[in-house]
Write a structure and sequence with these properties.
By secondary structure, this protein is an alpha+beta fold. It folds into two domains: 36-42 and 55-329, 2-Layer Sandwich (BirA Bifunctional Protein, domain 2); 347-445, Anticodon-binding domain (Rossmann fold). Helices cover 33% and strands 27% of the residues. It contains 14 helices and 23 strands. It has helices spanning 21-28, 44-63, 77-83, 85-88, 111-121, 167-187, 242-253, 265-268, 295-298, 321-331, 359-374, 388-398, 408-412, 431-442; strands at 32-36, 39-42, 67-68, 74-76, 94-97, 103-106, 130-139, 154-164, 192-196, 206-213, 219-224, 257-259, 276-291, 301-303, 309-311, 313-320, 333-334, 337-338, 349-353, 379-382, 402-406, 416-420, 426-429. The radius of gyration is 24 Å and the shape is globular. The mean pLDDT is 96. The chain binds 5'-O-(N-(L-cysteinyl)-sulfamoyl)adenosine. The site of 5'-O-(N-(L-cysteinyl)-sulfamoyl)adenosine has 19 residues, from strand 8, strand 13, strand 16 and helix 10.
Length: 446
């Protein structure tokens, strides 16, 4: 993309309404625009990152054997009357009437609808296990939408639902979700810690939230800080191997880590004092096992191997896709702007032309641009006639992890400069070497 033809409405001023750094930076970098309280348009730069995050979520869900579909945002009220949640959900649910005076709602979550799909088509244990998921907009009429897309009213969520013949199979699905979530967050450059939590309106006793530590987080957390060192890394997990998946989960959940809702002072006191930490976190996902809470009232029944009709065991599993942008920025920025992890960056590298209009410099930038594109990388070429200082400030604000600076002085000796946004370090090299370096950097992320 050429910046002169792009739509990147960056702001110099710090917007007064934004209280936390991620919200400020998303507005300043021209990523989102508020349309109503808690409702945002995704401008091109923000939309690119949102799509990167979605792509990672899809890849990791499909790797775990989970199947994508798409359910609508509007749902009929009668499904929710069947489960008993239509009245219980309260004012957070946006209720609408159509022209025939039928009651609809904008879905805050999809347990009822997916159970309805399941009961219409599945009746035998032979069709199990089954996990279906979608990435779809949700609406919750939050009493206090705030911090930009972090607590929105309309927000993008990945929600997945497992159907299993018994508790053991359903707990394996729960564990598969935990591992696939850990992989997804790591690919986004995040450390998200699974913490024992409370289930709220979704229901069930087994639930973990995934928290990114940040002072601006809305959740109060208590943890053994050795849990922050755990990494899944490149290890190969066989998602069909119950014992292996369970052992990864045990590794990530055996140290103390709980939100305030389930915090237990006596158990916490057993953590060695040097490792006992109390702080705040951003909830970027939650998994639930709730057995037959929805399948029983809604009649989602399968015939098991013994020929008995049993309500199917279910769980639901959510990732806050749009919230993740805020969480990533909270975890990765400096006083000049955002620092995108390579896995989610909107463009792989910026190209800064220090002397736009100079024939040799323009030609070098064009050929660099073409070479990166030919290798499947997506550069953002600043071909505007802004001063160098302003170009650097924009690059720093929007946070591309790598910048290639091209100017007449370097070109005189056949060199461009490759700069890391994170470390600030620059290295001179030939344009060919810069392309090869970027290709190698991004190889593991593709
Ligand atoms: N049905 C279950 C799991 S599929 C469910 O709805 N879970 S949830 O309520 O925990 O939401 C899943 C994730 O969505 C949360 O972990 C959080 O990251 C994100 N989320 C929830 N509310 C909001 C909101 N108002 N704005 C942005 N993200 C939100």
């Amino acid at each position: 993309m050429r910046l002169s033809r792009y739509f990147l409405p960056v702001m110099k001023e710090t917007p007064a309404e934004a209280q936390i750094v991620s919200h400020r930076l998303m507005l300043r970098a021209g990523m989102i625009k508020q349309q109503a309280a808690g409702i945002y348009s995704w401008l091109p730069l923000g939309y690119r990152v949102l799509r990167r995050i979605e792509a990672i979520v899809h890849e990791e869900q499909e790797r775990a054997g989970h199947i994508p579909l798409l359910m609508p945002t509007l749902q009929p009220a009668d499904l929710w009357q069947e489960s008993g949640r239509y009245d219980a959900y309260g004012p957070e649910m946006l209720r609408v009437k159509d022209r025939h005076k039928r009651d609809l709602l904008y879905g805050p979550t999809n347990e009822e609808m997916i159970t309805d799909i399941f009961r219409a088509h599945v009746s035998s244990y032979r069709d199990l296990p089954l996990t279906l998921y979608h990435i779809q907009w949700k609406f919750r009429d939050e009493i206090r939408p705030r911090f930009g897309i972090m607590r929105g009213r309309e927000f993008l969520m990945k929600d997945g639902y497992n159907f299993d013949v018994d508790r053991d199979a359903a707990l394996h699905a729960y564990n598969r979700h935990m591992v696939s979530y850990l992989r997804s967050y790591e690919r986004m450059g995040l450390t998200a810690i699974p913490m024992r939590a409370a289930s709220g309106p979704i229901g069930g006793d087994d639930t973990h939230e995934f928290l990114v530590l940040a002072q601006t987080g809305e959740s109060e957390v208590f943890y053994d800080d050795r849990v922050t060192q755990l990494k899944l890394g490149a290890r190969d997990v066989d998602y069909d191997d119950r014992a292996q998946v369970a052992s990864v989960c045990a590794e990530f959940t055996s140290l103390y880590a709980r939100t305030d809702e389930t915090h237990d002072e006596a158990a916490f006191a057993e953590v060695p004092e040097a490792h006992r930490k109390h702080g705040r976190g951003i909830e970027v996902g939650q998994i639930f096992y709730f057995a037959t809470k929805y399948s029983e009232p809604m009649g989602a029944v399968v015939v098991n191997a013994e020929g008995q009709r049993v309500p199917v065991h279910m769980g639901s599993h959510g990732i806050g896709v749009s919230r993740l942008l805020g969480a990533i920025i909270e975890a990765s920025h400096d006083d000049r702007g955002i620092i995108w992890p390579e896995g989610v960056t909107p463009f792989h590298a910026g190209i800064v032309n220090l002397r736009q209009g100079d024939a040799a410099t323009d030609a070098a930038c064009e050929s660099l641009y073409a070479a990166l594109k030919a290798r499947g990388l997506d550069p953002l070429y600043d071909d505007t006639s802004e001063r160098a200082g302003a170009k650097f400030a924009t690059q720093d604000l929007i946070g591309l992890p790598w910048r290639v600076t091209v100017g007449p002085r370097g070109l005189a000796s056949g060199k461009v400069e490759l700069t890391s946004r994170r470390s600030g370090e620059s290295e001179e090299m030939s344009p060919e070497d810069a392309v090869a370096r970027l290709e190698a950097i991004y190889d593991p992320h593709r």
